[in-house]
Design brief:
This protein is of the alpha/beta class. Helices cover about 20% and strands about 15% of the residues. Helix 1 crosses helix 7. GO terms for molecular function: metal ion binding; metallopeptidase activity.
């Protein structure tokens, strides 16, 4: 399984504990669009966050450092992207001039492919929420979950996605509740988390399973990618304290779930690939970034030879929730492409 981690503000690198042989490809670079950033004003972030290096921080609470098992190498990412192109083509989808997948085969004339209308249409995603408690801690009210769904709907509306809570269940299991972030390897999950998902997962690749727990190692959350192979392990695991109004200062506005679902949709971190002007996160309207940002410094520029300051207000960086406010148009297109390639039912 492939993973993406974002813990309490050390947000783990898009958790991919990928054995390259088992990669089920992702997508491709998306051409920039005229209006790439949201116009929401920047918000002041707390100075509590503590930076870690890219290699040592699996998205954790400030001060917690752990090896991130989900960072993709350039070669692994290239393999993912190539396989995504092949899978899309097998579904009769090729990119048009704007990078959006359209229902034209590769054999179609270049002009026809370039001008074809994007195949994506607005989509509502069914959400199955699995509340894990230890009997006393971890309980969530319907109001808290409803507020989290609202946060997601606001963040993903520009991309054409909405979320509908279909069912909530509660399980008391102290081992599952007090869990750790992904451990690496081919599936990524710790043994308890794997058992939890295998028991509780509902639906298909088009359905979002969210598991709320309390991470014992400072992790905020992690996610599978759409190109991961195991349906039973598909979904997002987040710390219940990161929901809107939760107890995690700086990380309690619900954007841990926003960030992790970005990975579930196929996005990498904005700092994936470092200062690469050709690869990076495979979205061309996010400025290159050498390392994750933990504070809301909009003048930060870690790739000075390339255009733009670091995208610290992007949902796919590591900054506190108050700083995050948008996906770019290119990220929206990539999510749509990945949905069509991996998650949309072909029935």
């Amino acid at each position: 399984m492939t993973w993406s981690t974002r813990s309490t503000r050390q947000l783990g690198l898009a958790s991919l504990g990928l054995a390259t042989a088992g990669l089920a490809a992702a997508s491709w670079a998306v051409a920039p669009t005229a209006s790439s950033a949201a116009t929401t004003p920047n918000r002041t972030a707390s100075s509590a966050a503590t930076a870690c290096t890219v290699d040592s921080g699996a998205r954790k609470v400030p001060g917690a450092h752990a090896k991130d098992p989900n960072t993709l190498s350039a070669a692994a990412t290239a393999a993912v992207e190539a396989k995504a192109r092949d899978r899309a083509a097998a579904r009769g989808l090729t990119p048009n001039a704007s990078g959006a997948l359209a229902r034209t085969p590769r054999s179609a004339p270049t002009f026809e492919r370039a001008t074809a209308k994007r195949a994506f249409t607005s989509t509502t995603i069914s959400v199955y929420w699995h509340v894990i408690t230890n009997g006393s801690a971890g309980k969530l009210s319907s109001t808290a979950i409803s507020k989290q769904i609202t946060v997601l709907n606001n963040a993903y509306a520009p991309a054409g996605f909405s979320f509908k809570l279909v069912r909530t269940d509660t399980t008391t299991n102290a081992d599952w509740f007090d869990t750790t972030g992904p451990t690496g390897g081919t599936d990524g999950d710790a043994a308890d988390a794997k058992a939890m998902k295998t028991k509780l997962h509902v639906g298909t690749k088009s359905d979002l399973n969210i598991y709320s727990v309390a991470f014992s190692d400072g992790t905020l959350g992690y996610s599978s990618f759409p190109f991961a192979g195991s349906l039973a392990l598909d979904g997002d695991v987040i710390d219940y304290r990161s929901l809107p109004g939760g107890s995690y200062t700086d990380y309690n506005q619900g954007d841990t779930a926003t960030h992790e679902i970005g990975h579930w949709m196929g996005l990498y971190h904005t700092f994936q690939g470092g200062c690469s002007d050709t690869k990076g996160d495979y979205v061309s309207d996010t400025a290159a970034e050498a390392s994750p940002a933990y504070e809301c410094d909009t003048s930060r520029n870690t790739c000075a030879k390339l255009p733009g300051n670091d995208p610290v207000t992007n949902f796919m960086d590591y900054t506190p929730d108050a700083c995050m406010n948008h996906f770019t148009a290119g990220q929206n297109t990539r999510m749509q492409n990945m949905w069509l390639t991996y998650r949309k039912s072909q029935a």
